[in-house]
Amino acid sequence: MGLMPRFALSMTAALSIVMCVAGFSLYRSSVRITDAARDSSVSSALQNLQADPPIPFQQRSKKARRHRTGVMIHSVMMGDEQKREGTLYQLRSEKGELSELLIPAEEEGGAGAFLRVIVALMVGVVFVGAVVALWVANQVSKPIVNIVHDIRQISKGDFRHRTRASGGGEIELLARSIDRMTHELEEAQDAQLELSIRQHEMELAGGVHEALLPQTTPLIDGFDLGASHMSSAHFGGDFHEFINLEDGRVGLLVCDVSGEGIPAALVGATARSCMRAALLRGEPVVETLKQINRELATDLRRGMFVTALYALLDPRTGSLEVASAGHKVPLLRYSASDRKLHLIHPEGLALGIGKGAVFERSLESTTVNMGAGDRLLMANSAPLGLTNPAGDELGEKAFYSLVLRHAQLPTTKFLRELRHSLLNYAESEEATIDVSLVTLLREA
Fold it and tell me: Is pTM, for the whole model, over 0.85?
């Protein structure tokens, strides 16, 4: 029930009870006063009839009121000094006999007593009405006061607070609206906090990710080395690295890190530091990867892993020792002699999954010799997972076709065209996932 009908019904019911009690009291008092006045008047009239000598009186006015019974009513002054007011009732019979009845004013009725009763009842009704009004006002305003208190709590930032107001109609609707608003504010606050944390994580992870990328590209006599990294909003820990050994050999490294965001970036940073320190020693590639796996398997939490494709180039002979640790994309070698693309994919498990003999037995390496005009390409798995607006992935064959199409171009132009082709397929101005590309061309 709404506030207005509740207030109207409460006041009507309360005042009806008060007025019934007041009316009954007034009726009982009027009957009692009327009976007392009648008895007093009759008694006084009988006394005046038997008075000897009769009580003198004088009419105050010549005009008299005529009762419907034929009785003439006169207002008189009575007594020896004629200081008392009274009423004279006269009735003449059919025989002409005149009957008179003289009643003093104070004996005529209980007008004064009746007035006092009315005044007392009015005061009582006003008092009870005020009490009832206060009670009804309290019943109506209490839920509103509770809602005001609830709103003050909410305004202090306590969005988990819920209204305690009870009642129907507008009160219940208002309470529900406030609770719904508070719930939405709480969700908005949580979303804002989550967004702030996410933005902070993005900035932190972005800084870590930038540190994963090499700042310079080595210059190698007889070879044209280049790299390209296409960053996206969904960054992870994927990275590429160049290893310059003291004996003149150069290592080319591309790694995929499971997951995305800060966890992946931190894993990538850990893996890069560990792998760089181990690879700089220049030991055989397979033995170095075994040592790296033993260290990463201890540091990485369960479910995290790193895949790696590593090629160690000897510029003097043009040969490369290649090893893969669970890397999805093989080493792509374009042969200038037959203008075909060859896939070099040595066996091996991902780093960090386990430090037992299974990993060490699975790992192998192979040697690749580069002729004049040959090109190598190393990439993370992102190019294969690029999707177009229809949701279709690029896949291995399409990616290999793009590489073959541009393989004869100079390195800088090759990377630019390959990058452009990947973005054209995604129909986007930037990659949706991080793409790392490292390419090596043996010059004629």
Answer: no
